[in-house]
């Protein structure tokens, strides 16, 4: 009976178990000697041909981090997701050497998955974890609406996409319906993959915290070097010591074992304080666009042509009638809202429809289906300006996205012209100038709602229209590949980059890898043009949008200085968060007693500085480690946030063969006499070769939220 109740036991990274218990059993177990806490299970949500060239990792160049690292050869990337479609060409092991001898993992059999056939020298591990999920989900997993496999095989496609983005091999002549044609590959094409299927094809993909913890426990034992997780729990966030956040708990144990854990930031942007996976030991990734667009001409009957974006690869729609549904009554525009589009065959058959929306994915798909079912031949969607594209009913049906300005000009044409006609031409791929990268509209933003002094996200990476492998069960796939958007696509880009850096710097800690990425990120496009952030309206990007900037792999391979951290720093953070010693001891696996006085945490040794409640003046310290030339002199360059003064002491750092680490202090003083929002600046250490930039974010709070007013 007891064995039937047991779901998982955890033994490699931490001690504990997951079981199916009644309320009375929970009370009894909680009172047993040695039991620290009993908590309920919880669930987490799932969150290329050009992107790697955009990041400076062209396979044709012999002087970049891709080749200096032997393309990540020997590094093992663990992927927590929906599994893998092993037959994809992206997972061929052609040209790879033997499986690393230190690898302790294995491949697990299951439905339509045989280790002897489906694992190789690329996919060296494949496990599946479902017991925690089925313990709390009382519906069948495999239904006509949501096909699933009780095995590492991927029915959803999400896991296959993220795995191939991180470490897929070279596959030539891949495109999506003819768009984005080129050679598709992952960031570390010679790295090995260990697949941990923890998410299941239910309501778009959900994952149990109990299964996540078990997967972390096994991955630590198996010997992975990097973990990529494109999933998270939506706000409000659990505390860092709450086992219901399986990612925070599991990643802590992984990081203390030297495993870098890379997580997606979430897709709830552009609203502030929506960033997920905010623990300071996690490398958190926002999503950016790249310098590529799929421009689609819209030609009106007055010979004016506007450029929208789409993945329309069908035949050109010659001049057809153009309509915008208008209702009678107080709100004539209500019938033209995309998510509640009201049309009928007599109105739209053989015509192109225009609609407006402030929503995204659901609105675009539903409007396209409504217009197509009514006999329409195309749809123009006016929405918030952004480069993230959403698929229509099919790619032969044009579903072209424009911003409100262009949509309004088309609407005025409809309301003023006598003969309303429009021509929709096929999409064309445009790369490089004049297309510039931006922070994606959907990418979750800071500040950190759990710990405002911890900057999140840490870094941004490509996450819009990323072409990678998928499951053939994906209804939008084209010959086994698909374009997806989300921070889910950005995280495996950084996991692949970390794999390259791990090959170059095998002794670096997870914190050193994060520091290298944060301090070398692009704030400006390589052309020199500043990076903007999509939103309402678009604006210059700041650290709450993209952390240290867009990832710069070649810069991160040679950062000059790094801000390192270890377990003691993270325990100091936990104490400063006022978590009780029992909860901290449970997390760390060792007796921990926080200082009696109130602990302070100013980011300890993070590569960024965030001051959420500056009243007059504050001083904090940082320690940098020289990882460049032994004899180096760095000078501080300060860009103070508006209305503040910033000083650094000493403002010159001299390193030699004996002096590898130096500590400096930063004093920030505000001139503001009122509460403000955040202002941004930076502190950069430069030796003439390296520029080691730390984002600086400051908010003045003369009257703090918990203060009393007389």
From TrEMBL:
Residues 4-46 form the Inhibitor I9 domain. Residues 605-698 form the Subtilisin-like protease fibronectin type-III domain. Pfam families: fn3_6, Inhibitor_I9, Peptidase_S8. The active site is at 81 (charge relay system), 158 (charge relay system), 488 (charge relay system). One of its GO terms (molecular function) is serine-type endopeptidase activity. Gene3D superfamilies: 2.60.40.2310, 3.50.30.30, Peptidase S8 propeptide/proteinase inhibitor I9, Peptidase S8/S53 domain. Required for arbuscular mycorrhiza (AM) development during AM symbiosis with AM fungi (e.g. Glomeromycota intraradices). PANTHER family: PROPROTEIN CONVERTASE SUBTILISIN/KEXIN. This is SUBTILISIN-LIKE PROTEASE SBT3.1-RELATED. It comes from Salix koriyanagi.
